[in-house]
Batch of 2 targets.
Target 1
Amino acid sequence: MSVYTTVTPEALEPWLARYDIGRLVALKGIAAGVTNTNYFVTTTQGRYVLTLFEALQLDELPFYLNLTHHLSRHGVAVAGPVADRTDQFASMLAGKPACLVHCLPGTDVSAPTPAQCAQVGAMLASMHIAGDTFPMSMPNPRGPHWWSVTAAAVYPFMAPADAALLRDELHLQNSHRYAYLPRGIIHADLFRDNVLFDGEQISGFIDFYYACNDLLLYDLAIAVNDWAMLADGDIDNERARAFIDAYRAVRPLQQAEIEAWPLMLRAAAIRFWVSRLYDLHLPAAGELTYAKDPAAFQHVLERHRQRTDFWL
Amino acid sequence: MSVYTTVTPEALEPWLARYDIGRLVALKGIAAGVTNTNYFVTTTQGRYVLTLFEALQLDELPFYLNLTHHLSRHGVAVAGPVADRTDQFASMLAGKPACLVHCLPGTDVSAPTPAQCAQVGAMLASMHIAGDTFPMSMPNPRGPHWWSVTAAAVYPFMAPADAALLRDELHLQNSHRYAYLPRGIIHADLFRDNVLFDGEQISGFIDFYYACNDLLLYDLAIAVNDWAMLADGDIDNERARAFIDAYRAVRPLQQAEIEAWPLMLRAAAIRFWVSRLYDLHLPAAGELTYAKDPAAFQHVLERHRQRTDFWL
């Protein structure tokens, strides 16, 4: 349950008066999500998601909220934020930075079809292109340096063979420079639970709070690793190909990206293997989130090491 | 049928490449609307309405498109425009200024319930408040001066008693000054066909191409005259009261507005009686639109003259 901060209708109503979205009809906590507190807010005018940020500070929010506003303005289906009467997207509520975003219809899909993968791939490419004109930037706080520092903290908890694999892979990644690959705004966490479908039609991307500036190809690899992943950690070829082909039809890959692709898939697997190892072995004091299994991404990585077909 | 300018998929595709909304899947003309050419555009990413402006010039569009963008950003349910990669909302297509807006779900309602009237009234009040922070402005091209000039052109076509009524009403309006009433952004044409409902839930306001700066109370009167109008031109008390009460719950009326209300309802009726008389008797050469019956608003006006209860 992801309601860390309780908001009552009595506390919400005066805050809602900052906005032009009508009067409160219903308020309901949302169980999904592991970092922030979320509520469905229904007013006389529509349905919104209220987010209270449990870690991000008020002055860190403009990047994320202006970004989703920018993408929405350019026709990328995302849950855009609502501005209040002072034209701000966020302000304090119940002691936390808080914002309202439009509520997208639909739900996430746990077993995506190739057709759904293709829709996500095409939209991700549109997002990468639309990000070109976004004027703000944000370094990736979970890039290669973070992987190495975090890996050092979890080696003591790992089986020796697993630790050796991780060391070996980090060494390989650190010996490659991707500076010549196209960079831009990436979602950085476009897993199945961050895309909503309304029936067969994609309804939008959500949860941009890991978004940052990094390699576009890395974002594609993160998404393909999740969207095409089977229960055993292997990759479904049909879903992977549908995702990648649809992406390339909107944003063709450069030759340098095609060459970097096999290693990029491994980099994307390392990112989540490491963070899940950390969350499992070194949870923050009092953390209420459940740790996800790191082994899934270890399997993805091992399979990528053996692979000869990368769906290009 | 309101497709005055034909757009083929072949002509549309290169223009769509200006945007980040995916590739064209389907293109379909829209019969509704009397001024501009409209198409439904379905892409791999979503559904949009393409409008080609038959009268407005490209440099006249920023007011309307920035306005709907502003309202949408503030949570007022409107069909917001989509920006292209140069961050413009409009550009030329098939020789006409053209734009894409998000497609709202639902359809217009021809026989609104009191509950639907209340939703529209509340949203209109939100729109009036959200318009407060919109930085652009537009004088009303169809204000009292336009009524008088246009009435002079149609008197020769009218039955003497009707013409006398119109002269009398214009004289009365011209003898009143409303300069002290709250002004702001008004829709100025919020008839039933310009509001979409998705089931029982309001989905949004459309067609802001008469929007301008004028008296907020005048906008309320225009909307009430249409939303509460019965087939015989009388006003349904229950619908009128639901509309007005919901409006006032969001934006309370000032005492001066309450006093001006009976005459404002008549002003709003005059506006559409006059424009319909003009369209009927003096249609523009080659105009393809069908003229709506002016008599409906003459009846509304006559009923307002006899009324003692104005639902306040």
Note: The radius of gyration of chain A is 20 Å.
Target 2
Amino acid sequence: MEVTIKDVARRCNVAVSTVSRAINNHPDINPQTKAEIMQAIEELNYVPNNSARNLKRSDNKTIAVLVKGISNQFFNKLVTEIEKEIRTKKYTFFLQHVDEHANEVDIAVALTKEKRLRGIVFLGGYEYHTKESLSQLTVPFVTCTTSDFGNNEECVCSSYAVDDYKESYKMTEYLIRQGHKRIVLLGPMEHDESIGRRRLEGYQAALKDNHIDLDEKLIRYMAKNVVTYSMRNGYVVMQEALKEKLDFTAVFAISDLLAIGACKAIFEAGKKIPEDYAVAGFDGIDETFYYEPSITTIRQPIKELATSSMQALFRMIKSKESVPGIIFAGELIERASTNPNL
Amino acid sequence: MEVTIKDVARRCNVAVSTVSRAINNHPDINPQTKAEIMQAIEELNYVPNNSARNLKRSDNKTIAVLVKGISNQFFNKLVTEIEKEIRTKKYTFFLQHVDEHANEVDIAVALTKEKRLRGIVFLGGYEYHTKESLSQLTVPFVTCTTSDFGNNEECVCSSYAVDDYKESYKMTEYLIRQGHKRIVLLGPMEHDESIGRRRLEGYQAALKDNHIDLDEKLIRYMAKNVVTYSMRNGYVVMQEALKEKLDFTAVFAISDLLAIGACKAIFEAGKKIPEDYAVAGFDGIDETFYYEPSITTIRQPIKELATSSMQALFRMIKSKESVPGIIFAGELIERASTNPNL
């Protein structure tokens, strides 16, 4: 039976927290007590640190997490959750950021050979991949926050994401119900083949179903010379729109960071949110609550995305068979940036 | 001589961007052109992806980056910079988050054995480590953003950080010059032995040198049941202070995220920033600019911290000798959260 910190505490007749202080070299402990605890640890052959213990057992069973594009708060939180799941299952966690213009599948193929991976997690990603390219992926993988290439017969894979079209439709329709007809869509990339495109299509469909003519001028693509999906990108694009004296009453930014940048540009122009312009985002990062005013957003279920995609990956590693993916519902959180009564 | 993407473009008489599109399976390319490019790539024996190529060369030369406590925007940016430096030097980058109550040195010792590390980067960290414990670290290491244990004779090591005492003194004195006498210090931990303690001491010294009596009630420790250094922690601690009707005119939060949380609590209480309460932070994350009002802060030189600490680590890996660390100057950025004229 494994020796736990409780056994050490019992042996020394001290609290578990005291043992923890001794182990972590905390200064706030009686030296005599500490010596006794260290003695007991040795006698009981207790391995003090959970993380240290897990490391020893990992046997080079590595799972790689490939994050496409620059890291942002949303992905960081997701990575932290995924890291936890991977360590709990005694796998080694390997993180690699992939440049937004690089091909993540090529990198995954190289990594698989180099690190003898057991599985791969793709976060983000907006490249089109051919069947030939995907068929080179010889280990199970999941795509998380995107369904772009997580559903295909060539591979052992699965896909976990919200329905970007539907969630975007939901937010656009909400803004229309709030009385807006001229809604800026901020943030798809030109020639976007992934998330941005689906969010654009959801926006277009909601306008159409509500008999509002689409004005192409209201679609504001991300700036190309600025980090994608960043606060700065939302800021410069909105500055440009305001300078042009674009006629609009609401902004739907396809990421929260873009929304925050847009808010700052609006404030700098001496305008009020939501009185002059309503602003909504997408993702549900904590910053949207702490911003003033708090920003309306679509919350993606980060914890569920992480847990279910990793469970699927572990299952696929065992069974070598694809499992069905899951489309999650996002949650529209209405806040003061679109509703002056909140 | 190495074949580059330019050679491929020249051979096919197309633009480099076209070759890139072919490599990355971009749909927006003529299939015939793509076939020609792929043919040329094979003939020239061009290895298309930089990252993929680097991976193959890494030979398991691993550097581990241990991040203490929960990830936040400041550390994330630093990790991204450090990751870049590590990959440029063809080392393998290994990231591990360390629970804030765990002992990072024990984990590093275990990792060194498990992964046959060449070097270690410690980010953050606020535990006291004995000489005995440190002497177990048999590979060179740097501490970054903290000088806690990066200067000792037992190890090959070096330390890169700002002078927390001095920078905190600077900010406190700035607030005093702005006319504030009752300044809340938000965020040290009780029994803090690291960054928080030095920032507290800088605050105390600035008050003393300006003949302002220290009021212990103005020191607001982080909440223990909430993630440290988080927006939420600043938010709940400031809510509590406002509920108590604490008498103060300014808040100096020892991290930007704490400052943002404090701002939200102040707004929710119906108060204005900076008219009712001035607020300042520490770290210089981008969010402080985009917040409304923009938040005064001390900018830590992230890029320089990353570059110089990694250069030192690479040197120490070669020479097996410690190199002198560097104390960097922070930059006080004055913004509207403490100056209504900005």
Note: Chain B touches chain A through 60 residues (CB under 8 Å).
